[in-house]
Automatic annotation (TrEMBL):
Name of this protein: MMPL family transporter
Organism: Streptomyces ossamyceticus
Lineage: Bacteria, Bacillati, Actinomycetota, Actinomycetes, Kitasatosporales
Compartments in which it is found: Cell membrane
Cross-referenced InterPro entries: CarboxyPept-like_regulatory, MMPL_dom, Mycobact_MmpL
Region called Disordered, residue ranges: 702-725
């Protein structure tokens, strides 16, 4: 498929352009119909909702609030009414507004109307739209806000609250995505040094995410998709889309630098890294689909939006990307790289620098590295012990927003619980005893029974505490467990606050089963891929540690308030109940991605050398740079969602950014390799009986096996990879001075006794090297370094790997061996 896409690149490009614009036009024309469905089966709030639906089958549109406060005097003063009443009348005449009710109608001025606070300084009016919040035109919302704000004057403050009003103050859609893409572009340019190579992952990610977003908008008309789902889909899609394209472009560039033609390099890249991308994308989708075991309707829409975006991002990476590689050809390299390739010919990729030095350090000090990394993760995980799940509301908005100020004014004038009243729904009309018991219940501020309808009575209960206060949750439990049963009336507690509590409770109860499911799935996949019990067990434990630490960061920032105002995301509050499931799903997928990328290189080295220390050192040295680069891109993309203006999106962005940072920079580059050094050969143990029964899963074929398909001569291999053609064995060891000091960047060449070069590599910073041997026999092994004399020695290689250390003397000693 990669070769077909490469050769028919114009067809592929036209198909993708047509798809993106076609779906985009259809999505724009149809609009959106997102719905936050929090109703839960077998919960008390769901039973209350069903009774409410029976009593009031024709539900009105969204109800928003206009709140005003005077600094001096009373809201009943003529000077205040002369400004507020015309504004309310103007709003009531607008097309799309069904009704406006306030404190100045029918007796509203007598005895402190229901819409006036006791001290007379704060009042409110309710604006009922003819449509639900998501369907109210933004132009109408702006007109309502403008009409209300026109009534302001010195000493008279006017604010607005409600779901429709909140939509008007959201950040422009696409701002966070644009900032994340720009930051990712900077990282890509620094990694590749080529403008065109930098553009490739960006274009691929935008194509996948753009199509996914518009398709999600279309699907919102056929199924319940929450309004946060497309934002989470774009967040996840951009991260994985750019990363997946990064892996493929990196492998493609490596192939060209090794002397392969662009087409063969693209085919090789898609047959190696492309297969890994398919595996990684599949694991992310499987993890996201694991949310379905939670049996929460709200999460079903999230699964649809995020999985669809991931699938389209993977599809773009394996079809659109090879077509773009065909358009660019050798220009995927920078001008400097192209000139060097022409002048010096193909060169082996040298793994040196910081990655090699760090890998050698971890090998020398595995215990101290593991302990330090574990201590950091445990300290960061401490706040998770106090995590409280819930739902954010307008009281968590930034204090500069009109919705937050309206929320605070209502709480000031009518009590904290006014913003989240409870609805006790009774199946019957005789509720006097129940009302009396509720009124005498501690924690209740006011009680009012609505006239019965269709044999159902609704009792409005205003708590003395705010909707997010833990005491409000205790009041709900008290009503359900004690007050209602004692009254002998069949009733249920509903309302937004009760639904949020039930949603958080159900999520918390089912979360352990979800975690067990995805951990078990990851264990099985890694066990099959790496033929080991210890490697997947280590990965499972690391995933739990990473999750705990990332949630600890989340609790410290958003629940404890350590930086919410600084980040500009509003007031601290409980962690969104759906967020742990979302974060764990994506963290599982990304951890699998990074673990496979890291351990597959270690496993390949282990198969060739049976040297665990070398396998871990080589795998970390060769993969850590790409893993860290990919993680840095995801951190930039996720962190940018703080700019979205939505608290849930900011939580998801910061939480995922912290999870990726901790996973890539501490776990995969420190704790995992250190633990594998300490475990030794036990890493690769698998019972013989299990080995025979497990299916064989090739996550990524060896690059060398595909490279021979190219028509050009095989270039020199990587310094840590066996040569093309399937070697029978290897020679590995260290290049050192007579004093035992490692010699890095030394050229180590394997030659036949007749002088023909078979393999050539460059030693790492710790002096380690490995060359591939085509078959058992006698060979010449030569080592050269600018600061040392050259040496060539005859070596005899049998059926297995040969460990051979090379000693180089200083130039001053004057000893020179002839080396071809």
């Amino acid at each position: 498929m990669a070769r077909w896409c490469y050769r028919h690149r114009l067809v592929v490009l036209l198909l993708w352009v047509g798809t993106v614009f076609g779906v985009g036009i259809a999505g724009s024309a149809a609009g959106t119909d997102y719905a936050n469905v929090f109703s839960l089966p077998d919960t008390d709030s769901k039973r209350a909702y069903d009774l409410m639906d029976r009593a009031f089958p024709e539900r009105a549109g969204d109800v928003d609030t206009v709140v005003w406060k005077v600094d001096d005097g009373s809201v009943r003063d003529a000077s205040v009414r002369s400004r507020i009443e015309p504004a309310l009348e103007r709003i009531g005449r607008m097309d799309g507004v069904g009704e406006v009710t306030g404190p100045y109608g029918e007796g509203g001025t007598a005895g402190g109307g229901a819409g006036v606070s006791r001290d007379g300084t704060i009042a409110y009016a309710q604006v009922t739209f003819t449509e639900q919040a998501n369907s109210v035109p933004k132009a109408l919302i702006d007109d309502v806000i403008e009409a209300a704000r026109d009534a302001e004057r010195d000493g008279l403050q006017v604010e607005l609250g409600g779901q429709a009003i909140a939509r008007a103050q959201e950040a422009t859609q696409g701002t966070s995505e644009a900032v994340g893409i720009l930051a990712a572009a900077v990282v890509l340019f620094l990694a590749f040094g080529s403008f065109f190579a930098m553009l490739l992952p960006i274009v691929v990610a935008i194509a996948g995410v753009g199509t996914g977003m518009m398709a999600t908008a279309l699907l919102s008309h056929t199924t319940n998709i929450p309004d946060v789902a497309p934002l989470l889909g774009s967040l996840i899609g951009l991260g994985v889309g750019i990363d997946y394209a990064l892996f493929i472009v990196t492998r493609h560039r490596r192939g060209i630098l090794r002397g392969m033609k662009p087409e063969e390099a693209a085919v090789t890249a898609l047959n190696t890294s492309g297969r890994a991308v398919l595996f990684a994308g599949g694991t992310v989708c499987i993890a996201l689909a694991g949310m379905l075991v939670m049996n929460l309707r709200f999460l079903d829409g999230v699964v649809i939006a995020t999985s669809l975006t991931v699938v389209l991002s993977v599809l773009a990476a394996v079809t659109l990307l090879p077509a773009l590689l065909g358009v660019l050809g050798p220009r995927v390299l920078s001008r400097r790289e192209r000139r060097r390739l022409v002048a010096a010919g193909p060169e082996p990729e040298v793994t040196s620098g910081l990655a090699a030095r760090w890998s050698a350090y971890v090998e020398r000090r595995p215990r101290s590295t593991a302990v330090l990394a574990l201590v950091v993760m445990v300290v960061l995980a401490v706040p998770v012990l106090s995590i409280r799940l819930g739902t954010s509301d307008q009281g968590n908005h930034r204090d500069t927003t009109t919705t937050r100020q309206a929320y605070d004014l209502l709480a000031e004038g009518f009590g904290p619980g006014f913003n989240g009243p409870l609805q006790v729904v009774a199946d019957g009309t005789d509720t006097k005893g129940l009302v009396a018991r509720i009124e005498s219940t501690p924690g209740v501020a006011r009680v009012a029974a609505v006239p019965p309808a269709n044999g159902v009575t609704v009792i409005q209960v205003v708590p003395t505490t705010s909707p997010q206060d833990e005491r409000t949750d205790l009041l709900i439990d008290r009503l359900r467990d004690d007050v209602i049963p004692a009254s002998g009336t069949e009733a249920h507690v509903g309302g937004v606050t009760a639904v949020s509590k039930d949603f958080a409770s159900v999520t918390g109860d089912r979360l352990p089963y979800f975690i067990a499911t995805i951990i078990a799935l990851g264990f099985l996949l890694l066990m099959v891929a790496f033929r080991s019990l210890v490697v997947p067990l280590t990965a499972a434990l690391m995933n739990l540690v990473a999750a705990a630490a990332s949630f600890g960061v989340l609790v410290a920032i958003f629940q404890w308030g350590w930086g919410t105002e600084l980040l500009g995301v509003g007031k601290e509050g409980p962690i969104a109940a759906f967020l742990p499931v979302i974060m764990l799903s994506l963290l599982f997928g990304l951890s699998m991605d990074y673990q496979v990328f890291l351990v597959s290189r270690m496993h390949e080295e282990w198969v060739h050398t049976k040297d665990n220390a070398r396998a871990v050192r080589v795998g970390l040295a060769e993969t850590s740079r790409v893993i860290n680069c990919a993680a840095l891109i995801m951190i930039c993309v996720f962190s940018a969602f703080v700019l979205s203006g939505e608290l849930e999106a900011a939580m998801a962005g910061i939480g995922l950014a912290a999870a990726v940072a901790l996973d890539a920079f501490i776990l995969r580059t420190a704790l995992v390799p250190a633990a594998m050094h300490l475990l030794g050969k036990a890493n690769w143990w698998l019972p013989a009986g299990l080995e025979r029964r497990l299916p064989h899963l090739a996550v990524e074929p060896k690059e060398e096996a595909t490279a021979v398909a190219g028509p050009s001569p095989s270039p020199a291999p990587s310094p840590l990879s066996p040569s093309e053609g399937g070697p029978a064995s290897v020679i590995h060891g260290f290049v050192r001075t007579a004093d035992g000091e490692p010699v890095g960047d030394a050229d180590v060449t394997l030659l036949t006794r007749g002088g023909r070069r078979l393999d050539r590599v460059t030693s790492l910073a710790d002096g380690s090297y490995i060359v591939a041997v085509p078959a058992p026999g006698t060979y010449l092994l030569a080592a050269t370094s600018p600061a040392h004399t050259s040496r060539a020695r005859q070596v005899d290689v049998g059926e297995g790997p040969l460990v051979y250390d090379v000693e180089l003397a200083g130039v001053a000693e004057g000893e020179v061996d002839a080396v071809s």
